[in-house]
Specification:
single chain, alpha+beta, five-stranded antiparallel sheet, 3 helices, elongated
């Protein structure tokens, strides 16, 4: 289809080359949207939904690689127990997966 458009534009002369430029730009944008932007937005939405569904007692992994268990949930942060009597406050955006999910994905990558 693309070669047909380019051939038609070449036959029309200079006015056609302007038109074909815009067609190419639109096609490039469509490809970027469906292969890069849309999947990334879907992934971010799933990640946000996973964070919203976390509850007290869930095992989590932070962006820094700290494993722990949710002790308390605040509006923008989690209080995580990482060892006996040791708790840290972590921003919700830095918690990426439950510990079980992280271990399962690592096992799948090794296979």
């Amino acid at each position: 289809m693309l070669t047909i458009l380019l051939d038609a534009a070449a036959q029309q002369g200079m006015g056609g080359s302007q038109w074909s430029f815009w067609v190419m730009m639109i096609l490039i944008f469509v490809v970027f949207y469906f292969f890069m932007i849309r999947p990334q937005q879907k992934k971010q939405k799933e990640l946000q939904q996973q964070r919203d569904n976390m509850k007290k007692g869930d095992k989590v992994v932070t962006a820094g690689g700290i494993y722990g268990e949710i002790k308390e949930i605040q509006e923008n942060a989690f209080i995580i127990t990482i060892a006996k009597d040791i708790t840290i406050k972590v921003d919700k955006a830095s918690v990426f997966a439950t510990a079980d999910d992280a271990q399962q994905s690592q096992k799948e990558e090794k296979k």
